[in-house]
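Hi R.,

As promised on Friday, here is the backbone we talked about, encoded as structure tokens. Could you run it through your design pipeline when you get a chance and send me back a sequence?
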């Protein structure tokens, strides 16, 4: 036991990026790497609900690294600006009956990539007018008020001016979109830049696991942020997890959509867990120390996933990126998750470790390259 305690103090914590790491400087979770795949630096979405853009572009940046491209910092706000415009157009077309919240989903950046191309961050940055951090509170209120005013207008029909006015608002908050730009000494348009990147949006598959639709089918995931009604592909829970593990083992990362409102989620402590003991029967001391060291975790079933989705226990909270797979000092599996809350948001440099139980229960969906799906599953899923 004394040797084990000495070993604990010799283990570095997350910021050292060693193969065996702690969840924090004085943490009792000790993680050993199984797989870790390349990712770009941690960004900060700050005061905006744009995790869907940050996580998807982080995932695509990893894809570029996997394909041997130079490191590219893609523009999250290029995606957000186009998505806001398309979202307002749909909201008006639906007479205000579709979602116009600031959230989104993984397919939104892919749709922008298809129809509008892409830009690097240095050409279309996240902040303008000297602001140090992203803050979309004012913008989101104005967008909603503008769209509602268009719908409620007393004219007999809509004018041709409202989309021009909408672009004016977006220009004011995001900056005008350049028709062409120079990147690394070469001239591009958004379309030619996306062609240079060489990514194919149709190569990426959105995967989930719920029983209210048939397995091996695709369906429109019934969550508010799926405002464009794009489809996800449905797998049994075990095959969903098999796909995740296979992708990570073959050098792929995934964009991960999950619930982070669970009491077992603690970005500050660098872990997300589903304790075996229910929170309602824990003592105060147990709750206060639950993130101090690994504890037995709940066995998650397909039925539990469905029940929590149906009862709003699992909701569409947050988009992130899973880059690796680790095990703790007792051999339990965890997934290494890149967040978009800034590098200094915890002692893991903006990452955290989600237990297998947490991923099984709280995963809403994940985006992966089709080659990151085992051939036997891909054949059934994409038939």
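Update: got your reply. Pasting your designed sequence below so it's all in one thread:
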């Amino acid at each position: 036991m004394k040797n084990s305690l000495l070993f604990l103090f010799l283990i570095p914590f997350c910021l050292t990026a060693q193969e065996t790491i702690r969840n924090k400087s004085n943490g009792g979770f000790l993680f050993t790497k199984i797989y870790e795949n390349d990712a770009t630096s941690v960004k900060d979405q700050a005061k905006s609900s744009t995790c869907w853009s940050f996580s998807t572009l982080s995932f695509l940046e990893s894809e570029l690294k996997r394909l041997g491209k130079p490191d590219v910092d893609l523009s999250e706000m290029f995606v957000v600006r186009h998505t806001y415009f398309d979202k307002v157009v749909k909201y008006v077309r639906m007479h205000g009956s579709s979602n116009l919240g600031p959230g989104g989903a993984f397919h939104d950046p892919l749709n922008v990539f298809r129809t509008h191309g892409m830009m690097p961050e240095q050409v279309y940055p996240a902040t303008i007018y000297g602001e140090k951090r992203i803050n979309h509170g004012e913008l989101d209120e104005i967008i909603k008020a503008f769209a509602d005013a268009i719908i409620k207008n007393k004219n007999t029909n809509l004018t041709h001016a409202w989309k021009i006015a909408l672009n004016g608002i977006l220009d004011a908050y995001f900056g005008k979109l350049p028709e062409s730009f120079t990147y690394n000494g070469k001239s591009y348009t958004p379309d030619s830049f996306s062609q240079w990147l060489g990514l194919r949006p149709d190569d990426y598959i959105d995967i989930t696991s719920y029983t209210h639709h048939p397995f091996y089918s695709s369906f429109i995931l019934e969550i508010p942020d799926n405002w464009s009604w794009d489809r996800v592909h449905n797998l049994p829970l075990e095959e969903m997890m098999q796909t995740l593990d296979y992708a990570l083992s073959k050098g792929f990362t995934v964009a991960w959509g999950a619930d982070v409102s669970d009491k077992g989620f603690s970005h500050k402590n660098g872990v997300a867990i589903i304790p075996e003991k229910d929170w309602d029967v824990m003592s105060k001391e147990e709750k206060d120390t639950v993130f101090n060291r690994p504890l037995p975790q709940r066995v998650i079933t397909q039925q539990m996933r469905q029940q929590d989705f149906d009862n709003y226990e699992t909701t569409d909270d947050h988009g992130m990126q899973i880059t690796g797979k680790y095990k703790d000092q007792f051999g339990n599996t965890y997934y290494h998750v890149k967040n978009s809350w800034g590098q200094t948001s915890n002692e893991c440099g903006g990452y955290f470790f989600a237990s297998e139980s947490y991923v099984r229960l709280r995963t809403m969906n994940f985006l992966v390259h089709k080659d990151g799906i085992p051939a036997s599953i891909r054949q059934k899923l994409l038939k």
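One thing I noticed while checking it: The chain is about 35% helix and 15% strand.

Thanks again,
M.
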